[in-house]
Write a sequence for this structure.
């Protein structure tokens, strides 16, 4: 599959667009926005899970991989959506949650019923926990089940039981699910926590087990080269990138790596990261993937991250400037950009004053675990800055606050698409320009990447292809002297003025032929 020219847009179905006013985003809502996405210029969509689910982890706890949850639509709606995207020239990938199922999945209901049920070995059961692994959402990763007096492994919520990939039947089931959706016409998958499917229970760490690469290869063998695959691999780094993405490996198209988003180890205590460090990590990863001749997945946000403009930019004094500069970082690098819904009009974090306004299981657990250790003010500050809820509020399309399954977005009046689309200068219009530029310049889709300069004031990188060169300069928080740009002419900037200085969060794209 040709990947050079892909520009992805991630849709979080429950919060994207509600077509029937019940407060839950749905598939018909997505269908109604196909034209919007076409106008924006993206040509691929990643849809977060909308399968049957108790929604303990917002759909990442699946109870039927082959059907759609009634709250968001029907299988027929989804088929119509796939078709609609394809007619609009937009590829569509689904989320493949392969590491675990909901405990409401029939496999698990069988599995927990008795020790000699044929489904027992679909999950990981032990008489006593063989390690002290922690759930990523807090607490032990082992849950005692009275029915059979054993513990099962859950890397995430206790309602998400980890599948036993060492059982060949599980691997076959997952491949059948992939086939089912490929036959329905989807173009590929974003693979949830894929590097966790193989485990070594006596190791200190959960995931990256000894048979990981064998399982990935086996899973996608019948489809390799025909579909697009991006693995969510928190363990991916310089050393192992080749194992996932080396072409001869026949494993994945690319991986999401997270170094640039994990500068502080403690997720909730994170402060605003220095942009120099963020850009250094992006630049490093660009070089790693270029070396492998594989596309890098370039992104600053998704449904698990706070809003990029609030985290990396200044959503109060420079919302337009910083959102557009960050747009440049996402859309002008080498590889495949992934935009997260709302990023294209600078949707920022909102501010909440009670834990009851946070619905995410991770946020709730964090609050419970820390309520005796930290003050209420500190806890809310941390949640407002870093909770996943920030990405998951209903997308503010219009000025009015609509009915919403989750606590409503608090900046709706100020930040909404209706207002953006009327404004002369808007984040949205600049995103469209960036996307159009990327599509028009082979240098941006096919060109090589080179780090030009990285200081504590700005980041500059160059792309080049067949004699054409594009230079991108991104200023951080403060005005600094501009880099040397001999022979380069500016072709796009988020400021009208282009001078000897770069202004706060200024982005300038230059060309030389
Ligand atoms: C991934 C998803 C996240 C989910 C977790 C468990 O990290 O992106 O939203 O909670 O896996 O499925
Ligand atoms: Ca709805």
């Amino acid at each position: 599959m040709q990947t050079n020219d892909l520009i992805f847009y991630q849709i979080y179905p429950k919060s994207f667009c509600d077509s029937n006013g019940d407060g839950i985003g749905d598939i018909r809502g997505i269908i109604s926005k196909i034209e919007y996405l076409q106008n924006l210029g993206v040509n691929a969509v990643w849809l977060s899970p909308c399968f049957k689910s108790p929604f303990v982890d917002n759909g990442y706890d699946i109870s039927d991989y082959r059907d759609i949850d009634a709250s968001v639509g029907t299988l027929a709606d989804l088929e119509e959506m796939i078709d609609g995207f394809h007619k609009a020239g937009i590829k569509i990938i689904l989320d493949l949650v392969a590491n675990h199922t909901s405990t409401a999945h029939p496999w698990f209901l069988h599995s927990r019923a008795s020790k000699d049920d044929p489904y027992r070995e679909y999950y990981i059961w032990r008489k006593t926990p063989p390690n002290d692994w922690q759930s990523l959402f807090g607490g032990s990763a082992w849950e005692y089940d009275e029915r059979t007096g054993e513990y099962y492994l859950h890397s995430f919520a206790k309602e998400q039981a980890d599948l036993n990939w060492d059982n060949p039947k599980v691997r076959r089931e997952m491949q059948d699910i992939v086939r089912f959706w490929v036959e329905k016409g989807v173009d590929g998958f974003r693979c949830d926590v894929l590097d966790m499917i193989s485990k070594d229970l006596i190791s200190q760490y959960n995931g990256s087990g000894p048979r990981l690469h064998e399982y990935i290869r086996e899973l996608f063998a019948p489809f390799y080269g025909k579909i697009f695959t991006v693995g969510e691999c928190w363990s991916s780094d310089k050393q192992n990138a080749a194992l996932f993405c080396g072409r001869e490996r026949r494993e994945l198209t690319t991986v999401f790596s997270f170094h640039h988003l994990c500068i502080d180890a403690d997720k909730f205590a994170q402060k605003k990261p220095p942009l120099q460090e963020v850009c250094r990590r992006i630049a490093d990863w660009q070089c790693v993937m270029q070396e492998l001749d594989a596309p890098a997945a370039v992104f600053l946000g998704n449904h698990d991250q706070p809003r990029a403009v609030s985290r990396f930019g200044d959503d109060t004094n420079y919302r337009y400037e910083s959102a557009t500069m960050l747009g440049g970082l996402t859309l002008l690098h080498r590889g495949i950009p992934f935009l997260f819904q709302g990023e294209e009009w600078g949707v920022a974090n909102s501010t909440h004053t009670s834990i009851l306004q946070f619905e995410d299981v991770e946020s709730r657990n964090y609050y419970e675990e820390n309520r005796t250790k930290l003050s209420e003010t500190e806890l809310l500050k941390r949640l407002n800055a870093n909770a996943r809820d920030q990405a998951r509020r209903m997308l503010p399309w219009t000025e009015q606050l609509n009915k919403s399954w989750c606590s409503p977005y608090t900046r709706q009046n100020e930040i909404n698409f209706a207002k953006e689309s009327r404004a002369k200068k808007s984040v949205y219009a600049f995103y469209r320009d960036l996307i159009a530029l990327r599509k028009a310049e082979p240098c941006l889709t096919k060109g090589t990447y080179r780090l030009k300069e990285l200081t504590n004031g700005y980041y500059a990188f160059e792309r080049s292809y067949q004699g054409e060169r594009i230079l991108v300069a991104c200023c951080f928080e403060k005005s600094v002297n501009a880099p040397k740009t001999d022979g380069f002419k500016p072709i796009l900037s988020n400021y009208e003025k282009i001078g000897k200085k770069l202004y706060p969060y200024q982005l300038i794209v230059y060309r030389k032929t």
Residues 18-20, 22, 24, 26 surround calcium ion (ligand 2) (CB under 6 Å). The chain has a mean pLDDT of 97. Residues 98 and 192 are 7 Å apart (CA to CA). The radius of gyration is 23 Å.
